[in-house]
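Write out the 3D structure for:
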Amino acid sequence: MKGSLKSTKKPGKICNLTSTLKNSTEIDSLAEAKILAPAPLADRLSTLRAQNQRIVFTNGCFDLLHIGHARYLAAARRRGDLLVVALNTDESVSGIKPGRPIIPLAERQELMASFFFVDFVTQFSEPTPLNLIQLFRPHVLAKGADWALENIVGAKEVQAWGGEVARIELVEGKGTTQIINKILHSHGLAHQSKII
């Protein structure tokens, strides 16, 4: 159901999920089931699309998860029935942001998969997620509102097949750079200047 944060796979179960999980192994298994390589995920999405599920796609580094990320992802999820998050591999992140990531890909994937409003997590090593966008053919491409529409990779392609591009407002003052700067300041070290 569009706009809901309940799981589309098991409607109504998400609110009672933690009470039904007996131990950390069950929680780990649930998160692991959401993490798929691009090819098997494309097959899964094809099946879900045939069931009239509205697919939302977003991507990013998502290093040092924070409240801004959580609110952004929840807002993206409300644009459809399921949310796919593609994470930059470690090599891809370091090409964009020298000295990063702080958290390695396997841990970033596990953390991302632990959000109840994230349905699938995958990864890409290319400079942009365009190949994944073309493979998955989402109904909605979500990106932060700090991106101009003409600069959003995949926007033209998604619009060409009748999809939409959702530019989602970010949480003011909540970002990875602010967290890193706070840590550096607390230890008397120099700040990073670029917001990341």
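The chain has a mean pLDDT of 84.
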